[in-house]
Amino acid sequence: MIFGEFPLAECDGLLLAHSLRLPDGILKKGRRLTSADFSALGAAGIQRVTGARLEADDVDENAAAGMLAAALRGPGTATRAPQAGRCNLYASERGLLRVNAAIIDAVNRLDESVTLATLPPLTMVRAGAVIATVKIIPLAVKRQLVDACALQAAVQDGQGAALAMLPFRPQRAALIVTEQPGDPQRNYVTAVNSSRRRLQDLGSHLGLVQRCAHNSDAVASALREALAAGCSLILIAGTTVPKDRADTVPAGIVAAGGTIMHFGMPVEPGNMLLLAQIGAVPVIILPGCARSRRSNGLDWVLQRMLAGLPMAGEQIMAMGVGGLIRSPVEADDETAAQPDDAKAPAGRKVAALILAAGSGSRMGGDNKLLRPVGGVPMLRRVANAALASRCNLVRVVTGAAAVSLEASLAGLEVEFTHNPHHATGMASSLRAGIEALAPEVDAVVVLLADMPRVDGGHIDRLLAAFDPQRPAIIVPMKDGRRGNPILWPRRYFAEMLGVQGDVGARELLQRHAAQITGVDFDDDAIFADVDTPEALAAIGESPWARRRY
Prior knowledge:
elongated, alpha/beta, 17 helices, single chain, six-stranded mixed beta sheet
């Protein structure tokens, strides 16, 4: 590149070094001058122009910036058109930014004419946000330098691309709030609101919220229920934070089969966070600051965990540099009076309807729905599964042993409908439940209370297939067989009110076979009901019931 001041007659093809303001407009820096520009420059009294004339092996600033940005691009990133020697890279999906610092440093050390700046590693960014910028300092650089930069950007050195987005992996989370007599309601409200919003910000779903006494047995029981409901992440907001690994809530985790992974973290606020695990399911005891929406150590742990990064003691102990967080003053959720209304995606309202009115006479003895499976009463398992899903509300239809069944669901946010005609068969319970649904409900998932292997994940897969604009009946399938539960759009409610007998809506499925959409499942939970003592024993002895999560 030949840089200097040239007479106007020699400026054809020259790259303009500085913007020139003329009476009729502006010739911007980096413009390649043509003979058409000469008359305007001459009319403005400009006879000499500062700029650069490119040689055969030169690459102009925009082309060079674009080439290098393309070489730096990794999964989840994209580039925009270069301008004025700058090319920005941006996130094409939401997540954490992974930066290969060795590559970035190597590129920046090659020559002062090429600069590359990025956001800090593991910054959470939205789709469309700028994550890095390439700036070519002069008007052009040698192609050899561009190639050398691109070669550095292509070096993987075991850490992957120079820049990549780690998208958040949606999880179904549970929140367990422990309480002691006299605890104010706002403690519960702030724990729920802040946890729900944190998870929603990361693309996950707070499905199940449980309140229990602040003792290890109650915590262990709540953990078993959350696991049985299909939750893949569990948060615990204790009425007090642990002071030792053997304190009340950690002891409850161990009693439920869990392992304490790490206690404490070099991040403030957030020092008192405790990380545990039950099988493959992470369990986090929240620090006291988690009731606030201000940034704290919990955010760092959740962001990295949900982005698929390993999270254990080693990773937590490496957070100290930069771990003193100073957030701007902002409003907290502590002023909220009521828990957020939570759940399903905008534009649809889906109810879960649990049919629990039968007497279970083939089981003998007490009502079968009160019998434990994996330590949790059968009906409570099904109710928790519905609550853990993205259904907006859960209604339980009772009949026989109604008082006992309602008592078994104490503390859960479910509504009840009593069916006095339950002895006539399942159809009467279906009719009673449909009649009780609010007019704004778009669809209903009908669950059988004696199918304890169904969890929130099964239900959510049906919801994901439901389109209010094309309302098909959504049915779970495996190996060509239909199972339960089934999602029914509102357009079928009127016909459901006409069903009779003890076979539910089976005849409706036959009548509307052409309107059925099947969702394939790879497990037998959609078939596993409990009608006999033998069936209960088989489920109780199955690896599914005995697994230590």
